[in-house]
Each structure stands twice: as C-alpha cells, then as structure tokens.
Amino acid sequence: MIERYKLKNVTIRIKKVTKRSEQLSLLMHRFDNHICLLRRFNGTLVVAEHTNEKLVPITLNTITAASKLGEVTCLVAGSQCAKVAEEISKVQGVKKILLADNEVYKGFLPESLTPLLVAAQNQFKFTHILAGATAMGKSLIPRVAAKLDVSPVSDIIGINDTDTFVRTIYAGNAIQTVKSKDSVKLITVRGTAFEAAQVEGGSGATEQAPTVDVKNELSEFVSQELTKSDRPELTSARTVVSGGRGMKNGDNFKLLYDLADKMNAAVGASRAAVDAGFVPNDMQVGQTGKIVAPDLYIAVGISGAIQHLAGMKDSKVIVAINKDPEAPIFQVADYGLVADLFKAVPEMTDAMNK
Ligand SMILES: Cc1cc2nc3c(=O)[nH]c(=O)nc-3n(C[C@H](O)[C@H](O)[C@H](O)COP(=O)(O)OP(=O)(O)OC[C@H]3O[C@@H](n4cnc5c(N)ncnc54)[C@H](O)[C@@H]3O)c2cc1C
Fold this sequence. Notes:
Elements: H1 2-42, E1 44-47, H2 58-67, E2 72-78, H3 82-89, E3 94-101, H4 110-124, E4 128-132, H5 135-148, E5 152-159, E6 164-169, E7 174-179, E8 185-189, E9 205-208, E10 239-243, H6 253-263, E11 266-269, H7 271-275, E12 296-300, H8 306-309, E13 317-322, H9 329-332, E14 335-338, H10 341-353
Parallel strand pairs: 1-2, 1-4, 2-3, 3-9, 4-8, 5-8, 10-11, 10-12, 12-13, 13-14
Antiparallel strand pairs: 5-6, 6-7
Helix pairs in contact: 4-5, 6-10
Flavin-adenine dinucleotide is lined by residues 244-246, 270-273, 284-289, 301-303, 305, 307-308, 311, 321-324, 327, 340-342.
C-alpha cells in the first residue's frame, strides 16, 4: 500500500511536474513569442560609413540589406557629423538614427567605436548589426563580434532568412550558405550585391546614442590625406576603366584617365599595377582590393587572374583589351579586343570626341 501510495505519490508528483512543465512550456512559448516580437521590434543596426560631411554610398546598400531583416536603426558616429544624421534621416527604410557626435570618434578608429557599439547593443538588443564590407567595416565588425562573443559573418551577398546568409569563398569560386545561431548577428555586406536604398522619402527620428567613456590606448588618429577626384567613386561608378601591369608605368595611366573622363568613369587597377607603384592602392580591384559591379568594366592590359576577377566579374558588361589572345580575361569578357593598348586606348578616346 505504502509502496503503491508512494508510487501513486510519485506518479502524482510526476504528473504535477508534467503539468507544471506544460504550463511552463506554454508560458515559455508565450514568452518566446514576446521575445520574437521584441526582437522584431528591436531590429537591425546599420553602422553608417561617412566622411562627417556625407554618407559613403555603400551605407545605402547596407540599409537595403538591413531592411530585409527588420526595422532599421542607423548609428552615425563621428566628429561634427550632425549633417550626416540629417542626410540619413531622409533615406527610405530608416526608422531611427543614433547620433554619437564626439571628438573621440575622429578618424573612425575601430578601437574607439567598438565600446560605443557594445553599449548600443547592450541597451537596444539588436538582432543584427551590419556594416559595409569596406576597410572600415572589415576592421570594426570582427572586433565588436569578439567583444560580444559571437561569430561575424563577412561579406554577404544574399539573405535567405534572418539567420541564413549567402557569401562567397575561395576568391568567389564557391558560394556558401551559412546559418548563424548567435543571438546577435554581426555582418559585413558586399555593397554590389544589394540595391542602394532611396535617398528621399524617409523620415527617421534622431536620438542620442549611448554615452560611453571611450579610453582608446591602442590607437591614435594622426591625420589623413584624402584623394580628391572629380571622377566617380570606384565602388559606385557605373563605368570603370582599369589598368594592369600592361600599362608599363604610372605615367601611362594618363591614357586611362583621359578615356575615363570622356565616359564619366572611375579608374581602377590590378594589384600588379598597384604593387609596381603605378597607382595608389585605393584603386585596386579584386579579392584584396575593392569589389565593383558597374554597368561597364573595361580591363586594359590585365591578364584576368582569379583574384582580380573576384573583384569585378559581377560587372554587367566586361570589355577586355589585351595583346595576348590567350589571356584568361577573355573567358569572362563580353567583348574582347586583341590589340596593343597603346594604340587601342587613344583611338577609343578619339572616337569618344567625335
Ligand atoms: C592572396 C592574393 C590576393 C590577390 N589579390 C589581388 C587583387 O585584389 N587584385 C588583383 O588584381 N590581383 C590580386 N592578386 C594578384 C593576381 O594573382 C595577379 O598577379 C594580378 O592580378 C596580375 O595583374 P595584371 O593582370 O595587371 O598583371 P599580369 O598578369 O602581368 O598581366 C598583364 C597583362 O597585360 C597584357 N599586356 C602587356 N602589354 C600589353 C599591351 N601593350 N597591350 C595590351 N595588353 C598588354 C599582357 O598580355 C598580360 O595579360 C592577388 C594575389 C594573391 C596571391
């Protein structure tokens, strides 16, 4: 009897536990739903890249990517950057702007910006934090991810759902789909894979970002020299003319500048041309340079190594000028001209004059 009673007791207890656990799981389910709603409400943070005066175009592509994941908040951090907050408040899809206008963010050093992002994350509990896959995004996002103890997902070219992202590996030769189980996803976005958000029509509200006591003893902003050019910016230009080792020296790049000016094009270069000192490295296109996907890409004296193709093969129309008919660039080119570039390029520029 006792045993039975005990057994009964136990059974009852188990039932009770079961009942409680059912109630608990029901509660958890409701709680989960609330968390989901809260998560959705919390949305996505985009780290705006800018010059303190104006937005860098990749921020607009990053906003488009972020819009697929939830409500978009943008962080504008810099010094004397209120103008940028105003600009971004008009961008379609941006609901809120967090403004951190402070001398400590001068030079956009990742060591100074990281505590700000961590503080913003602790306060607002974003589900995703995104930045463009630029030098800035690439140095900031992994650092913030490490501080939040999550894995960054870099250089995404697609979004399948809120956890699953598409990115390229092996210099663009394979496409990987990666699912992140982290509570917050830290992501860099390949700008050319997403349309730019409309710069008009939005009405985001600006509020102060969390105040952070930034003590950066690791790095110091000294100065910067910005290249001034009337030509369009390389990563957002609709036409790009790039030169490679075949240009022979830096002076000969004038041929490309002349052609580019006729076409309102940006000028890029292969790594070989950069390494040889023909042009500065901010002109490098490729795996370890900039990724471009213009309407028209003209490769001049470039062989077409996979590391170069990784940066330009998504261009809509590719034209190659090379004296070697076997050059691999012709395999990806829509139009190929087997010719001496020193003859062909001036002829093209002349033709543009007519
Ligand atoms: C880890 C890693 C990362 C890299 N990242 C990049 C990167 O981001 N971007 C990049 O570009 N490279 C990168 N590279 C280097 C890459 O492998 C190639 O070495 C480089 O792209 C070659 O540049 P090129 O085509 O200008 O030079 P070359 O391969 O030397 O080609 C020069 C071409 O010019 C042609 N030519 C010469 N004279 C004339 C003429 N008078 N008229 C017409 N054609 C002429 C030749 O036929 C030749 O095809 C990377 C390499 C590694 C290992």
